[in-house]
Amino acid sequence: MFRAKQVTRTLTLRLTIHYTVLEIETVLKSPTPRPKSLYSPCYERTLQATGYIIFEEEDETKMATSKEFRVAGKDMVDVICNYLDNIEERPPLSQVRPGYLKDLIPSEAPEKPESWEDVRKDIERVIMPGVTHWHSPHFHAYFPTGNSFPSILGDMLSNAISCIGFSWIASPACTELETVVMDWLGKMISLPETFLAGEHGLGGGVIQGSASESTVIALLAAKMRMIRKQQEIDPDLDQFDILPKLVAYTSDQSHSSVNRASMISSVRMRVLPTDERNALRGDTLIEAMKTDKKKGLLPTFVCATLGTTNSLAFDRLSEIGPACEDEDVWLHVDAAYAGSAFICPEYRSLLNGVEYASSFNFNPHKFLRVNFDLSAMWVKDKRDIVGAFFTDPVYLQHGHQGSVEDYRHWQIPLGRRFRALKLWFVLRMFGVEKLQEHIRHQVKLAREFKALVMSDQRFTIEAEVILGLVCFRLKGTNTQNKELLDKINKSGKIHMIGTELKGRYILRFAVCAATTESCHILYAWQVIQDCAIEICDGANGYKNGGTLSNGTDGTAEACISPD
Hints:
Layout: E1 2-6, E2 11-14, H1 21-29, E3 44-47, E4 52-56, H2 66-85, H3 116-127, H4 149-161, H5 172-188, E5 204-208, H6 211-233, H7 239-242, E6 246-251, H8 256-265, E7 268-272, H9 282-294, E8 298-305, H10 317-327, E9 330-334, E10 359-362, H11 364-367, E11 375-379, H12 382-389, H13 420-454, E12 459-461, E13 469-474, H14 478-490, E14 497-501, E15 504-510, H15 518-532, H16 556-560
Parallel strand pairs: 6-7, 6-8, 8-9, 9-10
Antiparallel strand pairs: 1-4, 2-3, 5-11, 10-11, 12-13, 13-15, 14-15
């Protein structure tokens, strides 16, 4: 739409030949906007007498055209780059108090559109004070969360396409790219071929939102498989007669999401003790299943962990797997963080025994430069997972059913985003070699930190350092170690978290940001030492239990070999 505005200079206007100067003057003097077609570029005439200029009327939506989006989009790229380039200058842990944000913005949404410039200003004023900066090289809490420019580009395209890929026909590329890149990823970590889609395989991979979702889906699939198995034996049984007899198993070091999966599925979960290396052993599982079978229960599901959250311990798949196979129990392997490292040949042995699993999962969005959310899950027999979630209303049916994958049957929600794009971009723009370099570099930094801890007699290493996590503590009481962590985080210089391991409170130091270098490791250690000075005088409640090594050759096998 266009309006006319009086000016004091002569102007050249493009007018349609069908309008006289008098008619144009009448239009220009009218306060009513006229269609853009009136001012067609068919004919050019100079009007010196009218003193009016035609200009484009501002669209009230503020972001209605690609022209406006190009401007704001380029500006947003600058915002992102400036943020990431200067993230080190910000305190890694947000310093705000609960409820800070509601006083910074209105209590109701605006009635009229606001400009991008106004929104942009509020990014720093409103949002950034409340952000904990996970990609700061001074962030050492939890585990890494992936981030890279190729991944961001993939998400941009996914958001632009904005398909809801619940079935093949809803967007064939969304389904088919996911199938292909999941096979790529499976081959990168040398998964057995039975987990790959291939040409006509029963296995295959699917992208879930998180490892927590993958565990829930695996347990629900195992539950329904066992119920169908029992009904084949006795067709008169109702699934609600069978359900109370089902039992699942995991270790006392598994992630809290495993217990949540038990709550969601209504399958009881037995938590089993771990050995001195915090790993679940086969004989412990075998004994538990024997005990439950004597009670008339049905062992149904085992969740083994490769790289626990507490200490990066690895359950013994080579022992657990055969036990599950003997009892026809679904074995799910959760390698949320550690799984990415299996693309490096020197760490692939940590995955030995996966051939016994029914399902396997890890998170490329942790350690493989892919932005959240992208959790990779594979199953040996897709019929089990599809059988647990299959529904087929008429409005979702299409002519290619049965010959293509419809991933709505592989997950809890119906809709799904085009997440395969960002994985595809990352794998292509980094290549396997660069991703391996990234993982090896982070492991190297963790070992540098371990060496610093071992050089100070006030501290002790509490678990094997296999990948990018170091567990340590002051040789003092649990209270003293909690005080130390509190001082570290209140300093605002680095961010860490603690956990409890066999009744001992320990500090976890994770190498997280892709930009972390040796100088950041040294800086973090200096912060820790400075904070320890005030409380270390009395920190001799525990004697040094000795140091732990990474094995004579630094290999994963040496790290976790029995005894």
